[in-house]
Amino acid sequence: MTQATLTQASNSGKAVIQTKSFTPSDIDRIFQAQKKKSLELRLSNFKTRILKLKKLKNAVLKYQKEIQTALHSDFKKSPGEVDITEILPTIAEINDAIRHVKHWMRPKNVMTPPTLLGATSRIVYEPKGVCLIIAPWNYPFHLAIAPLAAAIAAGNTVMLKPSEFTPHTADVIKAMLSEVFLEDEVAVFEGDVSVATALLEAPFDHIFFTGSTPVGKIVMAAAAKNLTSVTLELGGKSPSIIAEDADMKVAAERIMWGKFLNAGQTCVAPDYLLIPEAKVDEFVKNAKETTESFFKSKPENFTASPDFCRIVNAKNFGRVSSYIEDAVKKGAKIAYGGEVRSSDNFISPTILTNVSLDARIMEDEIFGPLLPIVTYKTLDEAIHIINERPKPLALYVFTKKRSTSRYVIKRTSSGGTVINDVILHLVNSNLPFGGVNHSGHGSYHGLFGFKTFSHERSVLQTPKASIAKLMYPPYSSFVRLIVRLTTKFFV
Ligand code: NAD
Q1: Measured distance CA(473)–CA(5) in Å, rounded
Q2: Is 425's C-beta closer than 6 angstroms to any atom of ligand 1?
Q3: Residues of the chain whose pLDDT is less than 70?
Q4: What gap in Å lies between CA 459 and CA 193, rounded to an integer?
Q5: What residue stretches are annotated with the Aldehyde dehydrogenase domain (predicted)?
Q6: What CATH number should be reported for the domain whose range is 239-432?
Q7: Which of 204, 220, 418, 451 gives the lowest tally of CB atoms within 10 Å of its CB?
Q8: Fold of domain 3-234+443-455
């Protein structure tokens, strides 16, 4: 891989930008070219868009090996996990758009109220225009290409910035996309925060950001300067509640899978566990067995498992391992795992019991393979613990009773919820995927992605003899009578 080079910005006073192959003025040049192209793309029909999506799909399949190798180089992610979490969902998202874009694009006729008698109404889906997509490192391929597919289906041009923390994957994304698109349609900008900052100055028609909550606030503030609409796909602490009646073996298996997938570096990973005191031992016993069966290894040998990846970099390794020390200092017990090795940013699958709500592990999003267990006496106490924190991206409930899951759903808020499993809601493209407040704004996947990258334009067509004329002045007593009757009976 070529090292990122420092490109000195002009003496315009702008920040020095760390890029691969472009200068700050390239951003403006490409933005202007895309602006022009976007006017052309407004006229594109479903056949053109399907053709582009098919080319994108073929490119993903063609580059599958390179994508696997890149992710292994970036944080030792296994090819199997790359196929399951990067390639498969990306192809599924592209296929869904190929299958449905014709229908999605069609203007939708809607009812017209009697006050506009004779008029017709429809919603027209127009492309937003030039869009910026900023992607994170944790699923660096999927989280760059899935929103791109939605943006293309909706007829936009895209300037895409992959994460600098997974540079091999960013290289592959750039190579792959430059085979399919000219830069006036899709352009990739590799580089660090300064590149993102420079990009955010341009007056985009939409910004789609996936990343952390603090950076989401920066993106939203930058977008506000141009009144650009934003989709923020953020993170947070996604709780799992295990109810008294839950099947402990099933719960342990599913939670451990979700927690240790990508070594816990998943936005919708079950962050912490809420469980009745009496059930802790049974859960931990099942969780240990499951974890060992997944990685076919004793805890001290986890490093040998090809299916357990590493923490992405030394900074995150330091942050995640410090949560163990802090929690233990505040009374937590390491029920399982707890090994850390800085030489390759390895942290073993770890379960912590007796965790204090004051520990840092219960404040920050963990984003690593640590599962803190907190006990509760009543379901309301568990709900209170969740509601004291910002609204999470996901909330998981394990129970055999419908009444219990309904009770929890009605009294909490989260981007999405899975009952008796974790993470899988994002597999169904008929469900909107997104957060709420601190965990995000807006959503995507399937139709929701198409709508995110479209402007829903209202079009009302009135007949020659319009009843609305009655509302024109002068407001005679006859007109006021008609308005009074309409107010009472017809609206
Ligand atoms: P991050 O916020 O640090 O970085 C994301 C992107 O933003 C990167 O491309 C980065 O270069 C850029 N960036 C960083 N600082 C910036 C700044 N000051 N101004 C503009 N851009 C900036 O996030 P990350 O560490 O790459 O990813 C992990 C976070 O993303 C976690 O919080 C996780 O929960 C969240 N996430 C959310 C989803 C989702 O779908 N909701 C998916 C994956 C990850």
Answers
A1: 68
A2: no
A3: 1-22, 296-304
A4: 41
A5: 12-458
A6: 3.40.309.10
A7: 220
A8: Aldehyde Dehydrogenase; Chain A, domain 1 (3.40.605)
